[in-house]
Specification:
Elements lengths: L23 H15 L6 E5 L14 E4 L5 H11 L4 E7 H5 L3 H10 L4 E6 L34 H8 L3 E6 L3 H13 L4 E6 L3 H5 L7 H11 E3 H4 L4 H4 L3 E8 L5 H14 L1
Parallel strand pairs: 1-2, 1-3, 3-4, 4-6, 5-6, 7-8
Antiparallel strand pairs: 5-8
Helix pairs in contact: 1-6, 4-5
């Protein structure tokens, strides 16, 4: 029997606005399967986003949703979690929204280790707002603002999250669709700030400029560069050149922020 996605979709919101071949729909289906696997109460689950193609995702979901200003998803989500620590708080956004204009909020959410899950759909471009290069655009790649090739080195978003203090960091791809929900499930179950980076494709503003002939070619590229963490342990540095690791990249236990903040309130009230 086919999985029933409809019960998690807000009535009257489809069809979606994503371009044909965009991987965002694949990620949304993975998120829905994760919510279903964990049997999360959708009335007690907040999905927060900023601005951009990926940030339109919560609008289709029949949960508590918050569509905020550009780059401010982590700040608004922090407010939700602090006001209602019992809620399941998820963030969804793109690479530009998350680590460019939202970069400062992102690193401080990681640092605090607040119990939220941030799903970053990394398609290496600002897809909705004009095709500008983002902090994840590969060096040499073309965008509307780098027509002769991007001179900047890209962020490794997963490493940035680890360095900033996130206690669960994972990476998947839109090609490996059946892995997405498993990574999100583990991220939500983790008590602390979790980041799940999904390498995605943007056929319209990235693929066309960078001479990908089709969506299939873009998806196959994701397949070719992805190496599971366990497989990478048996590979040489030369074999791993140009590859990206997938799976759970980092996990540790550390005091969670809302719990620690509650202790501060207790101490203050005792005095």
């Amino acid at each position: 029997m086919a999985f029933d996605y409809d019960k998690y979709i807000r009535p009257g919101k489809l069809p979606h606005i994503w371009c044909p071949g965009c991987g965002h729909g694949i990620v949304m289906k993975g998120l829905i399967r994760a919510i279903d696997t964990l049997k999360l109460d959708t009335k007690n689950t907040a999905i927060v986003s900023g601005i951009g193609c990926a940030s339109r995702l919560p609008g289709y979901m029949d949960c508590c949703t918050l569509h905020t200003a550009h780059g401010r998803a982590a700040a608004f989500a922090t407010g939700v979690k602090m006001a209602k620590p019992e809620m399941n708080v998820l963030l969804v956004g793109g690479d530009g929204d998350g680590v460019a204009i939202g970069g400062n909020h992102f690193i401080h959410a990681c640092r605090r280790n607040i119990d939220m899950t941030y799903i970053i759909l990394n398609n290496k471009i600002y897809g909705m707002t004009g095709g500008q290069f983002s902090p994840a655009t590969p060096t040499g790649a073309k965008a509307s603002t780098t027509p002769y090739g991007n001179p900047d080195p890209p962020f490794d978003i997963a490493k940035l999250a680890i360095g900033a203090g996130a206690t669960f960091v994972a990476r998947g791809t839109a090609y490996h669709a059946t892995q997405i929900d498993k990574l999100i499930v583990e991220a939500i179950q983790h008590k602390g700030f979790s980041v799940v980076e999904i390498l995605d494709d943007c056929p319209t503003t990235y693929g066309r400029r960078n001479k990908f002939k089709s969506v299939i070619e873009m998806m196959n590229h994701l397949k070719e560069i992805a190496v599971p963490v366990k497989a990478a342990e048996k590979m040489t540095a030369e074999q791993l050149k140009g590859k990206v690791l997938t799976g759970v990249l980092f996990k540790e236990e550390r005091p969670e922020y809302t719990g620690e903040y509650a202790k501060v309130i207790e101490r203050a009230q005792a005095k």
